[in-house]
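HOLO CASE FILE
Compound: magnesium ion
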Amino acid sequence: MKNTIFLFCPLNLLSFASFSQEKPTNVILMIGDGMGLPQITTSIYFKDSPSNFEQFTDIGFIKTSSTSHKVTDSAAGATAFATGQKSYNRAISVSPDSVRLETILEKLEAKNYNTGLISLTTITHATPACFYAHVTDRDMHEEIAEQLTNSGVDFFAGAGLDYFTKRKDGKDFYKTLEEKGYSMDSVKLVTNPYPDKKYGHLLAATEMPAKTKGRGDYLPDATELALNYFKSPNEPFFLMVEGSYIDWAGHANDAEMLIQEELDFDKTIGVVLNFLKENPNTLLVITADHETGGVAVGKGKSADELSIYFTTDQHTAELIPVFSMGRGSELFRGIYENNEIYHKLATILKL
Ligand code: MG
Ligand code: ZN
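Model generated. Tokens follow.
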């Protein structure tokens, strides 16, 4: 009897240990800046193949008002996603009384997650900045750039080189990033990344070109590069990908730009969905900070043609869709406030 107990106890412990060691959840948060339901609708009607949005069954809506305005800006919107607290328009992850709010990226960095940020505009722009910086106004690009150097972000791709190298204080934070172990590039995406290195891309002085001005496949390519980088070490990751110019197309009332930016974002979703198939310990959440342009997809000149109409060149207060897939995605159904995105992520990540 004694022998039997000694034989079976260690085995039982082993199997219990492997059963309880669930792989931590990777999170991919995709933000289509300015992407409301009409923008998503363009990817249904103007794409030659089925839109990647059609693959989702867990769908919700968020209310996006900030503490200062019914109609939010991108700074207050991303602050809500990143910190779980609503703040005023123009705030970069600070509270209405300017107190620093710890972000999901900072909390995950502290738990040894790998982290990444991808944007089309300057990496110091409101949406990406809210994940690693804390300033009272979104236009404080040079302060935000300095804070990026201390953020611990493992992979970033975007623009805004000038805020690192052509600064009023004369400092060179591109060099600082290199000194901190980043493999930096200002021309192209660095291929074959090694998991033990950090990667930084500042690929334009201030911003990338629009898709209609020859940007090519930067957004899907950067996303694929980041996912390949993150999957090699056996560590979980958090990645934020921003389709920044859906918003800019709305401000410019530029229908062709809107369609091209939305299709580029849709293509990038395809890259992420391929990753999800092979990595089921991943949660994908796709949403937006607000709608821009008050867009309607309506009847065109001929009966079978569609036209894009704009009712404003500003943001709107429309409910914003949330598409989720993967581990814990069912939590994102329903209608709720934008800062609940953070709290739902925190629940799944046990933050
Ligand atoms: Mg943005
Ligand atoms: Zn905007």
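CASE NOTES: The CA atoms of residues 178 and 184 lie 6 Å apart. The first helix runs from residue 2 to 20.
CLOSED: yes
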